Amino acid sequence: MTTSTLASVFILESDANSWTKLEDHKLLSQLHAKFWRKDMTEEEQEWRRSHPDVQVDDPDKYSESNIVSGCYALDFGIEYLERSKLWIRHDYLQIYDYCNEHYDRVKSLVSGIAPSVVITGQAGVGEPSIL
To answer: Number of structural domains, the chain?
Structure first.
């Protein structure tokens, strides 16, 4: 068993013993296995090839309706999953990058406490807040 370099959400490691791994045949386990640590560039390119009528706008001229690089419909391709596709917005990529940068900045500053962020709001509805 390898030890994660990320901080644990458990104060006492023994508390983690009561959590069991989701079985491989479960839908969310399949979703995790298919996309965890995967570069999504190929999925975006495939979606763009299958939707040649969708124009990619200039990201510097952002508006709610723009489809910029990084926006596409991700097809999960998992049978029996209630929702088979998810719209990926450019905003989500920026939020992900911010969270990674935040983690890299603070991971060595606090001992024993997992670095964290809280994201509120919904893209397109208003301004999200990142604490």
So the answer is: 1
